[in-house]
Fold this protein.
Amino acid sequence: MLEKEYYPQQIEKKWFDVWEETKPYKADDNSDKPKYFALSMFPYPSGKLHMGHVRNYTITDVVARFKRAQGYNVLHPMGWDSFGLPAENAAIQHGANPKTWTLDNIKYMTKQLKMLGLSVDWDREVTTCLPEYYKWTQWLFLQLYKKGLAYKKTAPVNWCEHCATVLANEQVIDGKCWRCNSEVTKKNLSQWFLKITDYSEELLQDLNLLKGWGDNVKTMQENWIGKSSGAILKFKVKELDDVEIPVYTTRADTVYGVTYLVVAPEYKDIEKLTTKENFEAVQKYRENAKKMSEIERLSTERTKTGVPLGTHIINPFTGRVCPIWVADYALVDYGTGAVMAVPYHDERDFAFAKKYNLPMIQVIDGVGFKEGEPYIEKGTLVNSDQFSGLNANEARNKITEYAKENGFGDFKTQYRLRDWLISRQRYWGAPIPIVYCPHCGEVAVDEQNLPVMLPTDVDFTVKGKSPIETSPTFKETICPKCGAKATRDTDTMDTFMCSSWYYLRYADARNDKECFNRELVNKWLPVDQYIGGIEHAILHLLYSRFFTKALRDIGLLDFDEPFSNLLTQGMVLKDGSKMSKSKGNTVDPDEIYANYGADTARLFILSDSPPARDFDWTDAGVEGCYKFISRVYRLYSKYQDKINLNYNFDINNLSKKDDNFIREVHIAIKKVTHDIENEFQFNTVISRYRELTNSIYEYTKCENEINYDVLSFGLLTLLKLISPVCVFMSEEIYSQLGAKESIHALLWPKFDENLAKTSSVTLIVQVNGKIKDKLEVSQGLSNEELENLAKSAPKTAEFIEGKTIVKVIVVPNKLVNIVVK
RNA sequence: GGGCCUGUGGCGAAAUUGGUAGACGCACUAGAUUUAGGAUCUAGCGCCUUCGGUGUGAGAGUUCGAGUCUCUCCGGGCCCACCA
């Protein structure tokens, strides 16, 4: 028997226990059904679930349940992105063990996720900080290493003093650390990189394959990869025979306007290029640039600085001798680290030339040109010998070709994307499986000896070096090649390494012989629907795409892109502003579960906004959803004795009221199905639930007119339609109605197009496009009949009288527009 | 500076893709029930003065007809940004 009133806590506890026992959502590796992989971005186990998680996982769960009901073999897994700084900070701040801290959090959050009613196959759970997982992260690193895609080099890298570690380019935001927001400086260090730049072009081109991704994410990736085509031009140095300076430019057409050349402070040949007289000043400038943080460099954006080196280049086109300067507006790691300066046609060069009184030559003319102002448009060439008169684009090609023929230049495609720096001087990550031998140098750890276990005998409080350095047992080892005493690499890998392949592991999560079985990974992947936050648009999604392509080339899998469809969900706000601990406007899922139940939380978080938009959490909104569920529940409670699971009625022998009701049910099926399939518009799906519920209340108004088989059809259809969202309530009701199987195992209801049709339609009558009348007419009348009906409608007559009908537009079953003069 | 998105009642929003603008809900108002409150039910609810107009950031255009398409402008948000 159903209780009279809705008590979610009892119901949810009951089914929590049942599902824990029966594990009804296991994905089947051997099923004949078509597969569907629904994936949420896995969480960092920070301690407690927040509403962003609730929104993300509810959306994915409803998708998974919907697809299951449509007959798919669904894989809906969950895991933990569990390496990272917060665990280590907990260790530093209150002496917690990072592993214990992390696993405790996972335990707590797992329970919260289960209480949310997720249809997850928990037997495939992955936890990146456990040796069973990071063994394979290390193994994959070694495969990349063998393929030449992982390499070590000394380079100026981004250094966060606060986190005491280096950062990838993608992790520096406005010159600040992505995690702690403190200033980032440059440090010259020997670090591990992954050659993501080998895939620049493919990563860019294959964005076209991703039809199921939003343009916003694709453009962000496109901009980040930053392809540009230009030319390399080589300049000879007047004072030195053995040095030449290549520059990268997208405006080879302006080469006749070069009046000086700039190299970056870190430019490799800079000392050779500096004369004795200028040496001191140049050194000082370079020291200064080195000390400056990214922020300071950015803040000097408008006032460019530099120092002349004392040497000169010779422009191969003009023979003009121009001074070489060092200036920090030239970037060492883009292009060649040197720039040809054309002050008249580049704003930066213009500002610099103006400040230091360097000459300017106009070589482009066109509309809008003003004497004494930089002109950056692509106009027509002037003062450029045989190239004068050409337009800029043409000249660009001709000039580059000329340089190529004469051996001082070539075409060049350049990308903004840099190689991915993956070393971290931190403890809580996967150790890099490399050994340094005094005889053999850098040597890979034997694959049989993986994982390289994280040591536990470390001092977390050390400053300026990785805690792993303090382990008395970790560092010393023997060389895998020659057996001599050797030392281990004490850095760990960027946690984005762990998250770049976790979705592959779900295909074969418990395999302890291989990273994943090739057949299984090819069967389940690519992910059919990936759902997560927009903040990963570049970092995680780009790295994962790179990993997939690299592993394909290594021969571990056979597809090109990991995520066919991507949904980036909006943020969860509270009363209009972003939820944050500092503002104190967070909402605790536990409290919502306790007060309203998880079904209410699920319903509400899907209800007010479409998934991609920001969602505003309000107390009144939760209250409203709770009332709605209670209202639905009361309906079943009231009619539970009358509901027939095997309802049966003759469609041709029903009252008009029954017909109308049945039609409304079919329309609800149609719309709910359509709205889920059409970009997961759950907000309108929930409106349909409410409409159908209203229809049922309306239908039951007169007790003596109820056909209980028809009512059963309506109630059971609503129950199934609502079941992906209100998972506990629908299961409880269905079971109390005497059903033997789970409502979640039922197939999705089918709608009948004929039954969803109305016998009459509202005809809109317009005169000159303005609505004058609405008529109830029967479905399927001819255009002529409709036209006549419209003309004779009483309200239209006065507008037509005495005027000439110029034209009549008829839209069948919908509208007649009479155009008069 | 470049790119992407966005603008509809007091609020969240919907509109079958060019054909009844505001579905559904929140808030609000009135009534019923109740000792009272809550809950529940019933009705109302864009704006303007009733008839009737008018209305989707502003202005123009295309069209029989524009929230939807085109152009110009204004506002809001996000991402990238000394990339030569």
The mean pLDDT of chain A is 90.
